[in-house]
Every structure is written in structure tokens, then in C-alpha cells.
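Schema walk-through. Below, the input block comes first and the output block second. Nothing else is stored per chain. Lengths vary across the set, and this one has 481 residues.
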Amino acid sequence: MRFLGIDLGTGSLKLAIVDEDGRETAFANAPYAVTSARPGWAETTVDVWYSALVSAASRLPANERDAVVGIGFSGQMHGVVPAAADGRALRAAMLWPDTRARDLLDAWPEPQPNPVAPGMAGPLLRWLAANEREIAAATRWALQPKDWLRARLAGAAPGSFVTDASDACATALAHPSGEWDDALIERLGLPRAWFAPLAASHETGGVLSAEAASALGLKAGIPMAVGAGDTPCAALGSGLSSAGDALLTTGTGGQIVVMCDAAPAPAHGLHTYRSATGAWYRMAAMQNVGVALEAVRGWLGHASWPEAYDDAFAANASASVSFLPYLSGERSPWMNPNARGGWLGLGLDDTRGTMMRAAFEGVAFALRAGLDAIRASGTNLDAMRLAGGGSVDPRWRQLLADALRVELHAVDCPNAATRGAAILGGIAAGHWRVDDLTALAPHATLAATPQPNASLDERLTRFLDLYRRAEDWFTLARGSA
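--- output ---
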């Protein structure tokens, strides 16, 4: 008996099969690009997603696929797929790094229970209604990415157009509880019928169609869990279950998640969302982590990540060079879509190693700014679980521990969000219950203990000062663009 987790990420699709004890037995992935037809746009066509799914599935062992009896979904949050009544996408999906709607945030005046960013479904759909009216008129469903994919695999059957609270609450169109905010949707002039009904993340949201089963090498009729957003799935897959449990994920973006028994009070720059099990979590969400480091690696000409790590950590940290990683604006804690990045303090004696090292430090400092906002809200964290493909190198883990001033415990689970999705599939198939999840927590190993580092603290202070000095310039530059 096996359970398949599908994680529809921003830059790749990942598949993991787990056994009856929640242990991963097979894994495959397929990358794809986020395209930008115009400055500030971030899109991917849904055909690319489906092709990546078929490609990744073909590399899973046939005997493992034959044993799959439940499927669950994890998906990148905030973005939206406008779709026809039969689930056919009417345009490319608009994704969370997108900033085209940054001038349309006036419909969400502060204070809000959750910060609103331009790449959330609410602002993006407001832009769609004003700028692509024919597509808006043809839209029947405004789906979150993982919900589109599940409906596609179900053959758009009745009951497959559904979403869960963990995804809905992050659209800027719902209450923190995940229930759709009908008054807000009406005020925005958006059709209420666009938004799928809610179900629990572990409930069945359709069964695998014969066509999709043939394409994936699976059996038809497998129940598919509704699924959850990638962050709550990563929390589930990493074993977070009790209030105060915390997780740092580093992928394309970065998230610091702290579990809560009840909804925490609103705090500027922080998110209060629903978990995959119906509990709550507080989150700082930084969008410039892997996306910024990947850009820098390309600019500096490092042929591989091992080369980039070696070059960066062989170099002595510069006392004068700082890197602001905000290449696509930033969410927590600044909530500033106009923020931009770059190096400051470069001299003729600096090398690409110096620049790469400054980039790693800049990303670590950006994560620290988000963590400081959580600490200021009353949560004192000194240890976190660590997950995500961008946190494997031990030198990078140590830098993160030193910059964040926390112990980092690496989860013995290389694909936490995918595992969380598979567990939801197992619940939908009737193998597990929500009450069983504590026993499924993976082992975590101490990966890094923070070490006193006065020079790093000085560079952190300089980084925060540079950001604050640059805020006015970001606004002026945006005005002249």
C-alpha cells in the first residue's frame, strides 16, 4: 500500500511515494521556468505543469506506482488559474511573485488581518477584471494552482472543483478562517461563483480519471485528497503538531512557520493562516531566498551550486559589502513590492566569491528580519525545524543558525511538503486519521547551533540600516519607472 504526494511548486513539480508508515520510498521531480512576458509579471502555463507531472511520474518505479491507493496535493500559494466550466485554463497561471497589481491594493486598506501582496489572487483577479475582460467574462472558476491540477486529474468531474481553508485564506479574498469574504468579493466586483466551495484538506476532492491514470501509470479511480498549500503541507510533513513548534523552509521563497492552537492577533508584516489539519499558524513569508540566490549564481557565472557554495564560503566575509536580496519586492516584514536589490560597498579588490558570500548573508539577514517580527509579536523562538531544498549545505546551515540565533534541527525528510501531501492522500484513502499525525512525525537531527559572531552582527545591523535608508529611493524609483 502506497500514497502519492504531488507538490506543485513555483519552479518544479515534485512527486513522492510513501509507505504505510509514512516513509518515502520513491521520488521524482521535473523543473520548469517562471516566465515574465512583461516587467513584473510572473506566469507559468498549466500545460507546462501537466507535462512536468507526466514526466516525473514516468521516472517513478512501476511497482511503486502500482501500489498507490491515495493521492494528495501540495501547491504554491496565492496565485490563480482562471478556468472555464470544464476546467480548461483560459490563460497562463498568474503566480505569487507577480507585481502587476501593485497599484491595485487600495481595496485592502490597512489594517488588514493579513498582509496583502500584489501576487495574491485578490489583486491579480482585480487586475484581470480590468485588463483582460474577455477572459474574465469567460471565467467560471478562479482556482488555486493545486486545485486546478487536481480537477484536471479528475477529468473536471463534479466535486473536483473544491479548495481548502489553508489555500483560500491566503488569497486576500477570504477571512483568516478560510471562509470566503462575500462582502469583499462583492465590493471588488468579482463574481462570487468563481470561488470553489471549501472542504477539509484531507477530504476527497475527486478520483483519478482513466485518462490521467493512463498518462501517469496509475490505477484509475484512486481517491484524491483536496490537499493544502505548500507551507502547511511542509509543516505537516515535517512533524509540526503542537503550539510553539516552528519550521524554517528555504526554497524559491522562505517561510518561518509557528504553530498555534488559536488564531494569533494580527501583526504587521506577518500572516495568520489555517494549517492542513484545521489548526492555525503564524508565518513570516520572505519571497527572496532561492530565487535571489539562483539569480546571483547565474550573474556570477557559477556552473553549479557546489561551486557557488565553495566560492562563497572560501571567501572571507567583507566588512564593507552588503547585498539587499529584494529582487522582486518583499513581503515579511516590510510588505514593500517596490523594494529592489543589489550590492553596495564593492571595491576593486572584491571577487565573485565575496559577492556570492554577501548574497548568502543578505538572504540570511532578510530571513532574520522576518523572524524578528515574529519575536516582536510575542513568540520567543530559539529552535526550529529545517526543511527545503535550499538548506542542505552545512556551511549555509551554520550561517543561517548564526544569523537567526536559533538551533536548527534538520528534518529526516528531504521532501517535506510532498510527504505532507502524501499523508493527506493516506487520510483520504482511509489509512490514517488526523489523530494519527503526531506518531508520523519524522526524526529531526541537530544541524547547527548558533555561534557568537560579533562581525556578523555588525553586518546585520548595517544591512537593516541600508534597507531603511533605501526605502525612499525605492518609492522614487517606482514613481519614475
